[in-house]
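Quick sanity check, IrrE N-terminal-like domain-containing protein:
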Amino acid sequence: MTPWLGRDEGNDDRRRMRRHCSRLVRDIKVPVPFDAEALCREVGSRIGQPIHLLPVEMPADGPSGLVISGARAHYLCYDAGTRPLHQQHIIAHELGHLIAGHTTGHVEEGEAGAPVLLSTLDPVVVRQALARDAGYDRREEAEAEIIADLLLRRAHSWAPEHTWRVPTDAVDVVARIERSLG
């Protein structure tokens, strides 16, 4: 049994949820290769508010990402201390919440106050943002995960017109694999 499904729900519900999420992301232009800033611009344009990425050091026992919504923008915080692929997943997951219209933590924005507060992750602001967890149910988390999966599959999908660049931290591994495969 999947955690977000009750006992009487099953494969049909999972398929319906995946179809629903597929419809939500169908018209989103996902940059290939993955570009978090470009994807945030695309999603921000779609939802009618800019999305600002904020890499921050997140506590090990806390969330790895969160969205704080203000009157004029969304602030997507993600763990700056994790690997790039994990950061991509965190960003895509949090964008999934926005795409699906899930409720997030809200802050009152001053003229320039919110970005400054958020860049230091003031504890009061964090508590307000984390209050959204009480509003998110397992189904919303599952939707955000499905949307993240759909976005990242498209961002990392192979197509003949795309040139792949090996990340610098993987060059040695790729070279060894190529040598062993001949």
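Posting the structure with no commentary besides this: The longest helix spans residues 138-155.
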